[in-house]
Write a structure and sequence with these properties.
Urease, subunit C, domain 1; 16 helices; about 35% helix; globular; binds zinc ion
Length: about 400
């Protein structure tokens, strides 16, 4: 059995910080959690145990290309077939590529992350590459595979009646043998009959579905011009995805539609701003009751450090709420976007919070650090002051994914 004494633990799905005399785990399970009184301020520091973080949206495939898309538009950098990302990925040999992906996974562990949902390009080959990297490092990769090439020519997309070609159907089957689900860039990449088939095939296989929507106005406009419907409503009706990523441009009506659908939204505000796009309507989505995750999106745009994403998201939400204190967002609701809220998407062992009998998946934060040790509001400091150097250790189901070699703490 391993344990930490006299610490602070964020307990239960509400993540409220409490003093804790003993936090212990054996194998993959939390076996003891002696909860004391609530604790939202410190006088002389503490070890703070938080649930291991879930990154709701990544593309680790481009971890070999940090800042490669600097100066490019969304279309120039990221769209098939000729976007910078796809051209450069095609040049990498598998061993070099896997080494970069493993590096990104290790950095995620070092910054408290235990699991991520990845939109993986390059067909079955790409999904297998990430699976191998994930097995080597121990961070869980929920792999949402994408077709190697766009199956439809522009004119076929415009007529919008074609079914999946046989070769693409076979690729989907091969993808789902390896991956945990299917993703595509946008609803505009496939025809309506193809989406219906993908929904049926993934549902029959018990796999996840995911899509980017409303990242910029063109997503909605192209969809409207081709089909008479915007991309969000088509996603909800034709694909019924488990997650919808971005929502940067979501209108009031679209937010209401999403809330009604009960589909989880994944926000990536740092990636959006890096591309010169607006920030997502975080407070409106929260107020509408949408279950939200946070993602760091392409490693090409952002290092996959969720504490940086929490910091940015918290400040944006605070700004969107305005000066009225009555509407101030609870920082723990922001933290739930990388912890508790995952359960609605993954279920099973993905609780996203800490309690006796649940998986020993957690990170230890060094609140003895100079900039944290006398916090007057621990919940706010967690989302606004913790940096990569403050994570002492990260465990997933009892397996140590990261431990700071330079600081003894237990
Ligand atoms: Zn993305």
């Amino acid at each position: 059995m391993s344990s930490i004494s006299d610490c602070v633990v964020l307990h239960g799905p509400e993540l409220r910080p409490h003093h804790c005399k003993h936090f212990a785990w054996q194998g993959d399970t939390i076996t003891r959690l002696d909860l004391g009184s609530p604790c939202n301020s410190l006088d002389a520091g503490a070890l703070v145990v938080i649930p291991g973080l879930y990154n709701g949206h990544t593309h680790l495939g481009d971890s070999a290309l940090p800042d490669g898309a600097a100066g490019l538009t969304l279309e120039e950098g990221f769209f098939r077939p000729h976007g910078y990302k796809y051209r450069e990925l095609a040049k990498l040999d598998a061993a070099t590529h896997q080494g970069h992906i493993e590096g990104a996974l290790r950095y995620m562990a070092q910054t408290g992350t235990i699991s991520h949902l990845d939109f993986r390009e390059q067909g079955p080959f790409g999904s297998q590459l990430l699976r191998d990297a994930s097995t080597a490092v121990g961070v869980q990769s929920i792999i949402l595979g994408q077709f190697q090439d766009s199956p439809f020519a522009a004119e076929t997309l415009t007529t919008n009646t074609a079914a999946l070609p046989p070769a693409t159907r076979a690729e989907l089957a091969a993808l789902l043998d390896i991956a945990d689900g299917f993703s595509e860039s946008t609803m505009n990449d496939l025809t309506d009959p193809a989406w219906l088939e993908i929904k049926a095939t993934t549902a029959a296989a018990g796999k996840l579905r995911a899509i980017h929507c409303l990242e910029n106005p063109a997503y909605r406009e192209v969809s409207l011009a081709r089909t008479g419907q915007g991309d969000l409503i088509r996603a909800i009706e034709l694909l019924a995805p488990h997650i919808i990523v971005h929502l940067t441009e979501a209108t009031d009506a679209e937010i209401a539609l999403l809330a009604q659908s009960a589909i989880t939204g994944v926000l990536n505000p740092r990636a959006n701003t890096t591309l010169g796009l607006p920030v997502p309507p975080i407070m409106q989505l929260l107020d509408a009751g949408v279950n939200l995750l946070l993602g760091t999106d392409n490693v090409m745009l952002n290092p996959p450090n969720l504490f940086a994403e929490l910091d940015f998201t918290w400040r944006l939400a605070r700004s969107q709420a305005g000066e009225s204190r009555a509407h101030e967002p609870d920082p723990l609701r922001i933290l739930q976007m990388v912890t508790t809220n995952i359960a609605r998407v993954l279920g099973g062992d993905a609780y996203g919070y800490l309690a006796t009998g649940l998986p020993a998946s957690f990170a230890v934060i060094d609140f003895h650090a100079r900039h944290l040790r006398s916090t007057r509001n621990l919940s706010t400091s967690l989302v606004s002051r913790v940096g990569p150097g403050d994570v002492l250790a990260t465990y997933r189901e009892g397996r140590e994914l990261w431990r700071d070699p330079d600081r003894a703490w237990a």
